[in-house]
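Two folds, back to back.
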Amino acid sequence: MRLDTKGIIEHTYFLNCHKEMKRLNSIHSILANQTSKQLHQALSTHTATTFDDFLINGVHFFAMVVPFGNQYLFFATESRPDKITRESYKHLLQSLIDSYDDPFEEDEDTTKFYYESMQKLNNDLMNKTREVERLNKKLNRANRLLNNRLVKDPLTGLVSRYQYADEMALMTKEHTDKFGIFCFIDIDDFKPVNDTYGHKTGDVYLKTFADRLRTLPFDPSIIMRIAGDEFGVFIGGLDAVDTSLTESLWETITDHVSGPISIEGHDHPLSFSLGMAVYNDHTKDIHELIDMADKAMYKAKETGNTYSVYKKEG
C-alpha cells in the first residue's frame, strides 16, 4: 500500500503465490470488513497492526500491516499461524524493510524489484510455515512417546512411578465414601538373581512377576511398578476393611504370584514381603498412604514372605 500526502491510499500491489486472487474493484473492497476500523487507525497513526480475521473477497485471512516509509507492507495468509510462526512473519517482514535504505520511488524497475522481493518474502514465509509445521508434528510425536513412557513402566508395562499417584487419586474420587487398600510389595532376595545370572535374566524375572500381578482378580485396582523390585497394588471401592479381608487379600495375592520363575531351564525361587495401609482409615493422603504401606512392608521384611498391616502410632 502507498499513501499520498493526505493519507489517502494511492496504490496497492497484491501477490498470491498459491492461486490467482480475484482482482479487487477498488481499495474499498479490502477495507469493507469488520477490521477496517483497526486498519484505518493503523494507517492514520502509521503503526504496525495484526489481524486474526481479515476479509478479502469473502475469504478470511490472517494479516499483518507494517509501515515502511510513506508506504506499508501488507501480508495475508489463509493459514492461522501459531505464536512462533507469527514472530517469524514479523521478523521476515522487518528483514525486507531493512533491506531498503529509503522508501522506493514509483518507477517500473523499482516496482518490479518490489514485486519480486515480496514474492521472495512470501516464499520464505511459506517455507518457514512448513518448517514450523514439521517441527510441531515432530514435537507432538515426542510428547506422545514421552507421555506413554511416563504412564507405563518401560520394562513391565505396568503403571509407572511417574503416574501411579495420579491414577490412585482419580480412583479415590470415583469412590469417595469407600475404603481402599494399598499393598506395597518387595521381592525377597532379588539381588542375587541379578548378581549371579545377569541383568537380562533379572529383567525377565521382573517382567514375569509383573505378568503374574496382572492376573489378580481385584476390581477396581491399579497395579504399578514403584522402583526396582518394588511393586504396588491399590484396591479401591471397598465397603469395609477388617482382619479377615486383609488375610484374604494376602492369600489371593500369594496364590496368583508365588512359585518359582523358570528362565532358560533354571527355576529361580520367588517370595515377597507385603505391607498394607488403608485409605480412608489410616489416611486420605495418597503419598502418605504409600509411605505407611512401605513402613508396614519393612516390618514384614523382618520375617520375610509374609505381610503386615500398618498400625497407627500411639
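---
second:
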Amino acid sequence: MQSEYFPSQMPIPADALERPAWTLPVGACDAHMHVFGPPARYPADAAARYTCPPASLADYRRVVAVLGLQRAVFVQPSFYGTDNLCLLDALAQTPNARGVVMIGAGVSLAQLSEWHAVGVRGLRVDLFRLAAIGRTLEEIKVEVLAKCELAARLGWSVDLYVPGGIACGLADSFGALPCPLSFAHMGYLGVDQVPDAQCAAFLDAVESGPVWFKLSGLYRYGPGRGQARAEYLAKQLIARVPQRLLWGSDWPHVMDKPQDPGAILNALYQHCGGDARLLARILVDNPAMLYGW
C-alpha cells in the first residue's frame, strides 16, 4: 500500500524557473532525475514512502527545454521498487536518454541485455533500504560487489543511494571494483552524522578505484551547517576528481519542497567558478563516458 508519510508537491513550472547564467554546451546532461507516470499503469511499491508526484515526462521536457539540457539519465525511484516499467516506457519515448534500473533476484542477463538495447546503462542499489532491514556493512559490501560484477558483464555502472556512514565504510573496497561505482547526492557525505575526519579519509580513498560522484541533491543536506558542508564537499570534489563528476537536477525533488532546477544548475556554475571547460566536462564529457553517448 502506498505510504502517505510524504505527500508529494507540484514541481515549479518550467516558465517560472531561474534561467542559466551561461549558455549550456551542446550535449549537456542531467545525470540524475526520476520519471513517474499514472498510478493506474504504474503502481507504487508496497514500501513507497511518498505519494506519486504530480510530475510527468512532458513536464520534465518543458523544464529541460527552458534550461538548455539535451540529455538525461532516468534513475529508478524507490517509489517503484524493482518494477522498472515506467522508466523503460520513458526511455522508449526519449532518444537522448539513458536509464539506471533497480533489480531483484532472478533477473536474467538476457533480460538486462534487452534493456541495454533501449538505453539502460546502470544498476541502482538502495543501501538506505538494506540498512533499514538490518544488513551489516560486510553484507552490504557483498551485495554491492555482486551488483558490480553483474554490471561489469554488460559494460554498465552501479549507482548507490547510500547513507554517508555506509559510503565511508565502502572506501576500502574501491580498489577491487570491476566496474564504475557512482554515489548519488555525493554519497550524503556532508551530513552531520559523518565526522569531518571520516569524510576527509573517504575523499582521499577515491583515487584508488573507478569512483564517480553526482553533484546532486545538495538541498537534501538541510539548512545551516548541513548546507555549508554540502557546498564545501561539492567544491572539494570539483578540485579533486573533476574527471569523475556528474551533475543532476534530482527532479522532481521527492520528499522535499519544490526546488528550482535552474537555480541548482547555477549553483554548479558558481562551484566551478564559471570555468566553461570544467562545466563542459561535468555536463557533457563525463556523462558521455559513463553512460555511453
